[in-house]
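Components:
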Amino acid sequence: MIRVRFAPSPTGNLHIGGGRTALFNWLYIRAKDGKFILRIEDTDKERSKKEFVDEILGSLTWLGFKWDEIYYQSKRFDIYREYAQKLLKEGKAYTEKLPDKPGEAIIFKVMPQKIKIKDLIRGDIEFDAENIKDQVLMKSDGTPTYNFACVVDDALMNITHVIRGDDHISNTPKQILLYEALGLPLPAFAHLPLIMGMEGGRLSKRTGATAISDYRKMGYLPEALVNYLLLLSWAPGEDREVIDINEAIKLFDITDVNKTAATFDLKKLDWMNNQYLKSADSEKLTDDIIPMLIEAKCIDKDNFDRGYVLSLVKLFQPRLAHVNDFVDWADFFFLKEVKMDPVAQAKCLSKDFSKEFALFVQRLDALQDFTVENIEKCFRDMMAELGLEAKVLIHPIRVALTGKTIGPGLFEVIYHLGKERSKERLQKWIR
RNA sequence: GACCCUAUCGUCUAGCCUGGUCAGGACAAGAGCUUUUCAAGCUCUCGACACGGGUUCGAAUCCCGUUAGGGUCACCA
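Structure:
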């Protein structure tokens, strides 16, 4: 039975790098029917916060990574203490009392030797123990150090594959020494390359949003984020980019992961998000969008027409880059007063179109069967009679109706806006 | 500084293991088509094997070095 673990520390949000590590762990066991263990590394009482635990669990759930078991290191201090005592008794560790510390620390003796990591992604990596200092196992306050708790837990939780970030490579020889001293079986290791920011160095807050939950707020679909993350350091082959997660599960193998650090590119994520948005389930998308509309005061929480929202979601779906773009682009369908973009007004409504608008209002009013096709025909017939090109009036009408120069096709807009509201909005510009 | 990792278009990558296809695709950028604006779509353009040595008839591919980037060196995780 293959068992992997994702072991975040609740001292901050789940960030992009952590999300990708979780993804690769989760992906790895899916096809092999293994177990995904979540271990909250909350040994640092000062910095660990319950709110971060909730945030991390929420983000993992949102991404779709279900865990089979969950453990908290803060509840396992007795276990670590027991194993440290064992090493002490066997003479593999010693105690040390520092004048400025409360109690005695237990420290592991590092003996001179060569240590070899067999990494599934990088191959063999060799270290000389000469470069490794004696390691603190238990701090003088009675809490375990990271490397020690990690080894004890990975062994006791029967973790078969430790898949984690590159930044842990130099911890690995220290941990291998501990496995050997404890007489515990070694797991397989796979070190994932790090994700870098656009300006070089680790992805950090300076280079953009880092928390998975931020991307949720920014209107990215979890499927799109996961697909994008998947393409960082791994490729499904055959030049494929958009790939269903279930297919990725079949194709993925940890040994195929690249060794090179990848740069996080928001532009490509946007493209990916649009790919998913275009084919997303409109009903689900509507459910996501309704709270946003309520918050933007576009609709009333207790009194709105879901069917109407749904029809508009379908209209805007192909052009959305982010879920919440909808609120910005479709607000005129909900607000009583059009939010006029001054630039759009100057560009398209600086001339007086009173005569043309009045005529169009008249024609719309007379239109019997108010369908998109009929609206278009009505408009084009009128323009033909006036001897004008369609675009001469299309843009001014659009701006008068929507306050924007961008949006779906004008006749769709008029149709969804309805006859009365369209007439009203045009009339405002008739002097 | 010491130790470790890495090196293909601006970015993500295919190709590398098992040397021999104009080094392929995607994002971005630029141009065009379509058109009713924006987005999408379609077509085209731009654009890379870090450098230097080997090995070989032949190197992106194998070996060595240099350089560059990154990571780690806590009683943080």
